[in-house]
Write a structure and sequence with these properties.
The chain is α+β, with helices and mostly antiparallel strands and about 525 residues long. Helix content is about 35%, strand content about 30%. It has a five-stranded antiparallel sheet, with no helix packed on it. Strand 23, helix 9 and strand 24 form a beta-alpha-beta unit. It is elongated and about 145 Å long. The relative contact order is 0.06.
């Protein structure tokens, strides 16, 4: 840098005669301005390839001799028949004293008037003494020619050559530093963009997962509500079908018959009261019977016993299964996408999809459900005090009606909290646990080691926020939909290749507070699908 400054100083010692340098415009539509700066008025444009005459440089701007195309404005009072009548008259960039002065004319100068504005200002072709300014970045200058002797020229050329080399070195270093900075900025921007894209993809996946969970929850709630209504209806019809019945007929004359015997309303009410609460009354009314009298009769009977129905029981009695109303069948697809739950309480009461159901009604209700909506899947859960024989009977009923058994509870899964079993080693050592599941060939599985359970399902991923607690989810698949039944911990590297595949897991089951499904610590597993 010091050498470069010294060379510049040496170059400055040479005396230059003020000389016009020529240049060629390298940019398209290069603006000419009244002064060196973008804030000054534009006087015209130069095109690429135009030759210019440069008289001075100033901080990146070149002072040019005004081309013939440049015009300016002067006061009209100083022009008389094309001649200037005053001295040092300002030539401005516009017809107003607020515009910038870029030249002057003197008394006696001849000017070419182009336009008169408001009789005050005259637009003239700019005199040769005026100058315009352009950006130096878009003009290629020719070497300055100065009248010197040969020795001076030789020394000057040597100095200029050295200065040019040093200048190019300095510019190269600046360009390298700038390129390095820009490259770093580009890499940072690229990484930031990649991070943004990744974050967006993760957010989209999480939103999709949350939306899928929300939809699954909504569908599951709707399915539960529909199952409750359907099974309640089937139970009601089964009660009507199995109960003791009295048949009441009302003919077209509004006469009442109990069986074949004509009776009065009062006699019928007395007879119905004597049958007890288990009896169901059916009223068969003729088309011409008075509807108001039928309504009055049914209401009177219901005051004695609520089980009164205005319908013919013959189709119900003769049918092999209960037919639900067509309005309920519109939800067939929704019902097929979920499973039926059979819960056995500690008192051995059976609850069929939240509907308390007599044990001996379960099979006929499942048969009717199948005939109306097709085969389904059943999930059996029970209290630890439930009767194992009752559970076995229910399992056999499920198999008999050709429903898929998602899970049949072993003694281990019957306990209220599997964590109690893991903590109570004495109980584990003294309890033989055998889990039976429904297989295609009706084989009985081998005896599991004490404290172990076996579950079958499909391997699914879990949420990011749960991955520090568990590795995978184990899900049942029902009509193409997955329902989580447990979470898995351990054997992660071996299990990860079985994503969305069915496996059989043996391990120890535990529960975490706030988690609705158990965590199964994997000890053994076996793939069931390729």
């Amino acid at each position: 840098m010091r050498i470069f400054l010294a060379l510049l100083f040496l170059l400055s010692t040479f005396s230059f005669a003020e000389e016009i340098r020529k240049g060629v415009v390298t940019g398209s539509k290069l603006r000419m301005r009244a002064k060196p700066g973008t804030k000054y008025e534009v006087l015209g444009q130069l095109l690429k390839g135009d030759e210019v005459k440069v008289v001075a440089e100033n901080n990146g701007w070149l002072k040019l001799v005004s081309p013939d195309s440049v015009t300016g404005w002067i006061s009209n009072k100083y022009i008389d028949h094309g001649k200037i009548t005053g001295d040092k008259i300002n030539v401005r960039a516009g017809a107003n004293v607020a515009y910038t002065v870029f030249g002057k004319v003197n008394k006696g100068d001849e000017v070419e008037v182009i336009e008169i504005k408001n009789k005050i200002w005259a637009k003239i072709k700019a005199p040769s003494s005026s100058h315009v300014w352009v950006s130096a970045a878009y003009v290629k200058l020719e070497p300055m020619i100065v009248a010197r002797n040969d020795e001076e020229n030789e020394k000057l050329n040597e100095v200029k050559a050295v200065v040019e080399i040093k200048s190019q070195d300095e510019k190269l270093k600046e360009l390298e530093a700038k390129l390095k900075t820009e490259k770093k900025a580009a890499e940072d921007a690229k990484q930031k963009l990649a991070d943004m894209i990744l974050k967006k993809e993760q957010d989209q996946k999480e939103l999709a997962r949350l939306e899928a969970e929300r939809k699954a929850a909504v569908d599951a709630k709707l399915a539960d509500e529909k199952k409750f209504l359907v099974i309640s209806k089937l139970l009601e019809e089964e009660i009507k079908k199995r109960s003791t019945k009295i048949i009441v007929t009302v003919d077209n004359k509004n006469e009442i018959f109990l069986g074949n015997q004509e009776v009065t309303k009062e006699e019928l009410l007395a007879a119905f009261s004597a049958t007890g609460n288990e009896t169901v009354a059916f009223i068969i009314a003729d088309e011409k019977a008075d509807k108001e009298k039928i309504t009055d009769l049914s209401d009177s009977l219901r005051e004695v016993n609520a089980n009164v129905f205005v319908e013919d029981p013959k189709p119900l009695i003769e049918s092999k299964f209960i037919k639900v109303p067509e309005s309920m069948k519109k939800d067939t697809e929704l019902l097929q996408s979920s499973f039926i739950t059979i819960e056995v309480t500690k008192d051995n009461d059976v609850i069929l999809s939240k509907v308390p159901t007599p044990n001996n009604y379960v099979e006929s209700i499942l048969v009717s459900y199948r005939e109306n909506f097709g085969n389904s899947s059943v999930f059996i859960k029970s209290d630890k005090a439930s009767d194992s024989k009752l559970l076995d009977e229910l399992m056999k009923v499920v198999q008999k009606v050709n429903f898929k058994l998602i899970n049949y509870p072993s003694l281990m899964s019957q306990l209220k909290d599997a964590e109690e079993v893991v903590q109570n080693e004495e109980l584990l050592q003294n309890t033989d646990i055998v889990e039976e599941v429904s297989l295609a060939n009706d084989e009985v599985e081998k005896v599991l080691p004490p404290g172990r359970v076996k579950m079958t399902g499909y391997i699914l991923e879990v949420r990011e926020q749960d991955k520090h607690l568990v590795d995978f989810a184990l899900a049942a698949r029902v009509n193409g939909e997955f329902y989580a039944i447990a979470y898995l911990k351990g054997r992660k590297k071996e299990l990860q290749s079985f994503y969305l595949k069915e496996v059989e897991i043996i391990g120890v089951s535990k529960r975490l507070d706030g988690w609705t499904r158990p965590i199964l610590y994997v000890e053994e597993f076996k793939p069931l699908s390729k």
